[in-house]
Amino acid sequence: MGPKVQPREAPLARTLSPAVLESIKRSKVLLVGAGGIGCELLKDLVLSSFLHITLIDLDTIDLSNLNRQFLFRKQHIGQSKARVAKATALQFNPSVTIDAKCANILAPEFNVPFYKSFDLVFNALDNLAARRHVNKMCLAADVPLIESGTTGYNGQVQPIRRGKTECYDCSPKPVQKSYPICTIRSTPSQTIHCIVWAKSYLLPELFGESGEAGGYEETEGEDAAEVAQLRAEAAELRMLRTLAGAELVDAVVQKVFVKDIQRLCGMKEMWAHRKPPTPLDPSRLHDKQSGLDAADLALQDQRILSIAENFAVFAHALEELKSRSRGGSVDIEFDKDDPPTLHFVSAAANLRAAIFGLPLQSEWEIKRMAGNIIPAIATSNALVASLCVMQGIKILANNRGLEGCKMVFLTAKSADRIVAAQPLAPPNPACAVCSCSYARVRVPEKGATLRDLLDFLTANLGYDSEDVSIAAQVGVIYEVDFDDNLQNSLWQYFEKGGFVVASDNTKVDLVLWGELADGELRIDDGEESQVQVPEKYKSQEEDKNDDVTMDDEGESVAGVKRKRSPDNLEEEDVGGNKVLVVEDGVIVL
Fold it and tell me: Which residue in 70, 113, 114, 180 is deepest, having the highest Cβ count within 10 Å?
């Protein structure tokens, strides 16, 4: 007699079999991201009887999220996405345990042992750097990853397993042509977020048709105050339409670059893992921009203007658009070929970027970037989320194997079907991420040094101390001509979740993660088994270049890496460690 099936689980048991259902209920899964795909995915997971879910997302809910992130309502604006998503999802299935964390997935606390505690990881991120990080951590932990994403009506789902399939980095990623709009109002992390804010929020509120003019419902309690505050902010911005000249400039600057930023700074939890924004100082900028010719500056579209110059251009464009709007009777829309609106958006975006510590851009670059915004589609997110769960169930049904899993694509261009699948591709032997060997270093709690690691590599894994190079996050920490760090504590390179990489000319890179342990230093695969470090993959072109010739300067002309002469090495102190530098840059991972 099989395990008892609850009434709500009966349809799943009939479809999947009681044994597979039991595997789902016992599994522990990590869901990274509670945005468009993440909300749909969390709902699908709890309805599919995944009973142990950890959810991580750093962002807070913005009004612009509500049209496609259906776990959120207006009374949730300003709250943590992860925590609100948990509360809403539990209404679908109260028996689920959800550990919601408002945190940055890049934080050191989410290390390899953290990932190894899960049977399955779902990635629902829209950030390239974070997606690559989760991909690498799952490879190191040898945990199945289901990567997903959407762009407009297109989407994809990719199951990934170390040594079995290609990873997220196996194929080069195209330059991103569309940009998420989830966090532009509160926590911009790229300059493009500031451009979207200036183009799609600030310009319409001041001179166009407001996209957020109303629709707030009356609520009571703690959340009502948040909604009331947002409604008041939107109303304040629209009220500025009645002003003109210098009075308008001062009022807008105080509102959007000082008062609103101060309010964001007051949300302490949002800045626990990132630098808070810095409001502008209008009095200083007024002094600096005196004497600047804003009309002339606006024509210098291929030069990155200073903050004071952007302030001057912003003030000039604001007054010009006010004159064109005829007291608010004419709506103004952004047009990249309309100089006043382009000047306004460019200067406003750069001022906001400066506030959040992001790089400023030339107007020429902003004009190019502003045309690449594709809205998220709720149905695309829902379809991709359901496909993620289907692939996850297949993995759990096969004891974390990938039998039956496919690479799945969602496209609106096909005439006969919108969902297409293809077999999973094998790992790319030339991939710099998944072609490595990943292993665990059991670091003794006291006394282990970098020399101990070097000795283990040479004595047990076949490395030659004359050829091996060791690098950490700070840079290269050992080469034969550079042994200053050999007496340093080994654990310092691992304690913040970092990796140490051993490289030579013949083997693939050995990527090590650390764990404190009793006894002597040892390296294993994370499951107490011996580590194997295979030979490097060589392309046909590299095989041709094995016979390396040297030019008159002693440099290799092609092919194999040649060890640098001690005369060509420079050293730099980084965080108390000596690291090698080449020319002006530190060699980093």
Answer: 180
CATH code at 457?
3.10.290.20
478 token code pair: 């050992």
Binding residues: 33-38, 57, 65-68, 81, 126-131, 167, 170, 431, 434
Cα 81 from Cα 102, distance rounded (Å) = 8
The type of residue at 109 is: E
Q: What is the rounded CA–CA span in Å between residue 567 and residue 73? A: 64
430: in domain: no
CA of 165: how far to CAs of 30, 142, 155, 408, 419, in Å? 20, 12, 19, 14, 21
List active site positions.
182
Same-domain status, 288 and 172: no
* Residue 97: its H or E element: strand 97-101
Counts of helices then strands in the chain (DSSP H, E): 19, 17
Give the CATH number for residue 274: 1.10.10.520
Last residue of a domain, which of 325, 350, 369? 369
166-214, pLDDT tens digit by residue?
999 998 876 544 545 445 677 788 898 899 889 888 888 888 776 543 3
CA–CA dist 544, 515 (Å, integer): 41
- 214, 348: one domain: yes
Structure tokens at 225: 């105050």
Tell me the whole-structure pTM to 2 decimals. Answer: 0.66
Residues making up the binding site for Zn(2+): 167, 170, 431, 434
Residues 404 and 342 in one domain: no
Region for 583 from its dihedrals, namely left if φ exceeds 0, alpha if ψ lies in -120 to 50, beta otherwise? left
DSSP string, 148-200: EEEETTEEEEEEE-TTTS--TTSSPPPPP-S---TTTTT---SHHHHHHHIII
For 364-400, how does the pLDDT look when each residue is reduced to its tens digit (9 = 90+)? 888 888 766 566 789 999 999 999 999 999 999 988 8
513 occurs within a structural domain: yes
Write the CATH number for 71: 3.40.50.720
Report the binding-site residues for ATP: 33-38, 57, 65-68, 81, 126-131
Residue 251 domain-assigned (yes or no): yes
440 pairs with which residues across the strands? 513, 524
Range of the domain at 235: 191-369
Q: Is residue 186 part of a domain?
A: no
Statement to judge: residues 478 and 573 lie in one domain? yes
> Alpha-carbon distance 393 to 16, whole Å?
9
Listed range (163-167, 178-182, 506-510) with the worst mean pLDDT: 178-182
Q: Do residues 410 and 418 touch, judged by C-beta distance below 8 A?
A: yes
As beta bridge partners, residue 60 has 80
What is the tally of structural domains in the chain?
A: 3
- Judge if 276 and 160 occupy the same domain: no
User: What is the C-alpha to C-alpha distance for residues 539 and 217, in angstroms, rounded to an integer?
Assistant: 63
Is the four-CA dihedral 260, 261, 262, 267 of positive or negative sign?
A: positive
Answer yes or no: are the C-beta atoms of 194 and 386 closer than 8 Å: no
Co-location of 340 and 405 in the same domain: no
